[in-house]
Amino acid sequence: MSTVKWEEWMSVGLDRIDADHKQVLALLGDLEHQVKEGAGREKILASFDGFIRHIRNHFSLEESLFRQTGFSGAAEHAREHKKLLTQIVDMQKKIQSEAEPLNRERLNFITNWLVNHILISDKKYATDPNVRARV
Ligand SMILES: [Fe+2]
Ligand SMILES: [Fe+2]
Predict the structure, then answer these.
(1) pLDDT tens digit string along 10-45?
(2) How far apart are the CA of 90 and the centre of ligand 1, in A?
(3) How confident is the model at residue 1 (pLDDT cuts 50, 70, 90)?
(4) Residue 85 Cα, ligand 2 centroid: separation in angstroms?
(5) Looking at the CA of 76, which ligand is closest?
(6) CATH number at residue 35
(7) What's this model's pTM, rounded to 2 decimal places?
(8) How many domains, in total, are found in the chain?
């Protein structure tokens, strides 16, 4: 299993946002490590909960930037966030009810989604001059 770490080519050119992305990917890396080591359900759930909290805060930060700056792609971007969150919370419920474990495949799905989102959607708002002036 390869852990995806934040690297310079993922930078959106805004330090505050890059720092958040680094942390989100680091939390995913911790989860990958725990899954690989066969950590218990409670431990994985606690880490997954921390990851969800962080990603919610991150999405809220981006969306509040959009509101403050009137970014034209706000609605579409927020829809993407919501879609991922719905899927993640669904995964969390399945782990809680022991219906499905958090496995490598699901973590890879989240990682790929996030990296794609950073490279395409986040980079788009990060070039908006009004947003750049605000961060
Ligand atoms: Fe985003
Ligand atoms: Fe982001």
Answers:
(1) 999 999 999 999 999 999 999 999 999 999 999 999
(2) 20
(3) very low
(4) 13
(5) 1
(6) 1.20.120.50
(7) 0.94
(8) 1
Cα–ligand 1 centroid distance for 38 (angstroms): 31
Distance 20 CA to ligand 1 centre (A): 11
Measured in Å, residue 22 CA sits from the centre of ligand 2 at 10
Angle subtended at Cα 108 by Cα 39 and Cα 96, rounded to the nearest 5 degrees: 45
From the CA of 122, how far away is ligand 1's center (Å)? 5
The boundaries of the domain holding residue 124 are 13-134
Q: How far is the CA of 72 from the centre of ligand 2 (A)?
A: 16
8 within domain boundaries: no
Q: To 10 degrees, the CA torsion angle through 10, 13, 87, 61?
A: 160
Output the six-digit token pair for 113.
């989604």
Asked whether residue 90 is assigned to any structural domain, the reply reads yes
Ligand 2 centre to CA of 77 (Å) is 10
